[in-house]
Structure formats: structure tokens, C-alpha cells
Structure prediction request, 518 residues.
Amino acid sequence: MKIADVHKSFGHLEVLKGVSLELMKGDVICIIGPSGSGKSTLIRCINALTPFQRGSIKVMGIEVNDQHLDKRALRRRVGMVFQQYNLFPHRTALQNVMMAPIQVLHQPRKEVEARARALMKKVRLEGKENSYPGEMSGGQQQRVAIARSLAMNPEVMLFDEVTAALDPETVKEVLVTIKQLADEGMTCILVTHEMRFARDVADRIYFTDRGVIVEHGPPEEFFTSPKDARTRTFLGQLS
Amino acid sequence: MEVLHRSAFRMPPAHLAPVPPVRLRAWFGLVLIALIVLPAAFADAAATTAGRAGIFATLARWTPLLLRGFGFNILISFVAMTIGTALGAFLGIGLISLSRPIRQVSWTLTQFFRNAPWLVLLFFAMFMLPFQLRIGGLLIPLPDWMKAVIGLSLPVMANVGEIVRGAVLSIPSGQWEAAESLAFSRHQQIWTIILPQCVKRMLPPWMNLYAILTMSTVLASIVGVNEVMTLAGQVEAAEGGRTDLLAPLYGWILLWFFLYSYPIARLTLWLERRYHVEI
Prediction:
């Protein structure tokens, strides 16, 4: 995947001022930075949820900044998990996981159900298959959302501040699930405020501020000897 | 945890407590009965001492006929609601269409039929529609009551359209985004993800609309449909226009409408509670 010189404005407000980054299959990167620095906007551009004005994003050969982009073809290969889980409240956990593969990919129900049950087990929610989202905790819902996204067999997963709305005690169960995915070789882009987790899981950290990538590098280097003054200020505020 | 706390959060401090809503209650019906029966009893006594037929006897004699008329009102309300809801569902989908022309046409239709007085629409339907339709070689008669149904289903359609649009807009945008990012088509998003969540939000206003429609079926008497009000007028005339019959006669019919609407109001309330619809 290659992101080159992406610009995005909402009206007069320029949110992304030329962002570029590149990642290979199996890479796990974390994007961190202060609120309003354009982190979420950037990953929403990747699966075309937010259109952008200039620049190029290429995902597995698909150019996102293209008028004739087949959004559905792109989204079949890019999974996304949101801060607010966004499970479908009128369906059970298992149905949430099964819906898209059956309706979008037209896969046989039996096969999908077996896979969905396996995914529920993988996110350690065995026995919760028939619960409705309203009956589950935030952490459980978020893990269902991850399973729902994985059911499409995506090649890249985008995580948009997925633990920001959770209670501290449930954050960990979600992070463990993501870590497990990363260890299995899933290509992941995470926007997160969990510094310790970012350090633990990422191959590279990208620090954004006011619409640009200020600094990036391997986590050890990034956290122990940040080069840019803005990065140092940001990390200083955290500790 | 979140679930446990939600009810606590919804309890505002005492000085901010909302004024309890006024609901239709069973004792309203009792008051209504008292208001009708007491004067009727006096009139009845006065009539019998004056040598005329008693009020209660007269009412009883005409009740079977009036009930047939009332059944007609219910029939009109049912059919108009069915047609209006079916058309309104499509209109509502049109109101949220991504295509600008479809949205504009739907908007115009909605505004026109929602803001036009029902009686005017009824007159339009009465006098603009032919008394029979020829489709191919088939002659379909269009009786007056059917025209009234069409006239009444138009405002119902527009109101249902608005109910659908309002319910769709009340679904958090995250639902659309999640559906989008799972590569659902727009059609699938609307029919399998958004609309099913709307049903319970739409039920209370929809049933409310039905109650209003039921009351409005009496408008059909003005255009000559043989429903309960038309028949009541004829009964009054047949009784020689005696004035002591007026209040008990129309009160009697009013009571029927109450008896019909009350269970609907209770059912709406029950559905609201059952689905935790927040108003």
C-alpha cells in the first residue's frame, strides 16, 4: 500500500497537508498524534469513506482517488473497525458477523456460519453468539466488530481509535485480540492513543501533527529518542 | 456496565423532571359515558312523559344501521392506511435517495400532500376521479367510498413518507459507515440494515397517524359516502329532526370512536415500552 501526498480539506480547513506513507504486506503501523491532527481522516480516506482532493492512495493496485473507483471492490479487501463499534443492533453477534459474507460475497450460509463461529471463538466470545449488541459490554461489542470485519477475509485492517470509547478494564481484551491478529501477519493500520500498546505491536510509528507526518520510525527509536521537537512535546505531555 | 447505568442517567434531577405526558385513559371513557347517558336519561324521561318515543329506545332501534356505517368508517381507514403506508414507504425512500431529481420529486409530493387540507384532497379525489376505470377491456367501477379511500390515502402517504425519513435520519451515521465499509450496496444498506432498525421507531407515530385517519374518515360524509355520520344525519331526519335526539345520537357515535381508539392508544403505549422507544 502506498499513500502519496494526500491533501484533504473540509471547506477552508485543511486537515491533511500532504501525507505520504508506505507499507508492505504484513506490516503493522500505528498512527499517533494530538486530536485534530488528521489521523482518523487519513485512515477513513484509505477505504474511501472520506473523499480527498489531491494525492494518491494505492491499495493492492487499486487507486482510491479515482472517479470511477469501485468502492465496493476496495472495501471487500479492506476491513475497518470503528471507535463506536457500530454493530447492527437488530441482529445477534453471530448474525452481525455472517451478514456481509452472505449478502456481499454471496458465500454459502453453512460455510459462513462455520467461519463465523470460529471467529467468535478466536475473539474469545464463544457462547455469546446469540446475544444482541445491547446485551454486551463495550469490549465484547468491539471484539464482535473485529470478527465481523475479519469475516470478509480482508487483506488490510484499519482500526480507528478502537479502544477510545472503552472502560479501562475492557481495553486490554480488545488489544489482546488485535495483537494476536498482528502476530498472525495481518496488515494493520491503527490509530491509537495507547502508547504502550503501539510500542509493543507496531513495526513503525507515525506521528502526525496539524495535517502532516512529523516523524516516523521503529517504536524503540521513536519513543526513546524522538528527533522532532513537536514529538518530544507530545510524548512529554503523556508521561 | 453501560447497560446497567443507562436508566440511572435517564433520571433527571427533580426540578428538571419532564411534565408527565397526557395519555388517553380508561376513565376518560367513563366520563364520556356519563356525559352522554345523564342528559340522555333526562331527555328520555321528558320524551316519554310527553308521549314521544324514548331516546334510548330510538337509539337502540337505529344502532344496527349506524353500526354498519361505522364498520364502513373502519374499512375506509384500513384500506386508506394500507395504501398510504405502502406508497409512503417508497416516498420515504425517495426522500433519502442519492439522486437529486428523485429527492426533489419526493420532497414536492410530500410537502404538497402533507400540507393540503384533508378535506380539499378528498374533494379533489371525489370530483377528479372517474366513476369507473377502463383498463384494457376491463371495466373497474370506482364507487364513492373507494374514491374517498384514495383521497384519504394521499395525506397518509405523505405523512408516512416523513415518518420514514425521520426514522432513517435518527439512525446514527456510524451504522451507515459500518455498512459502507463492509461493502454492502446502497440497496442492501437501506433494506437489511437501516429500515429494520427504523420499524420500532416508526410504530408509535404510525399508529398515531392511524388514529388521526380513523377520526378523519367522517369527512367522507361531506362528499356523500354512506358512513356513520351520513347515516346519523339520515336517522335524525327520519326522526323528524327532533332536537332532543341530537346530543345522545352523536354522543353515542363519539363513544364508539373512543372504544375503537382506546385499545390502539394502549397498544401504542405498550409497544413504546416494549421496544424502549425514546420520545
Summary: The interface with chain B takes residues 47, 49, 71-73, 75-76, 78-80, 82, 84, 86-90, 99-100, 103-104, 134-135, 137-138, 145, 148-149, 152, 167 of chain A (CB under 8 Å). The mean pLDDT of chain A is 91. The CA atoms of residues 63 and 69 of chain A lie 7 Å apart.
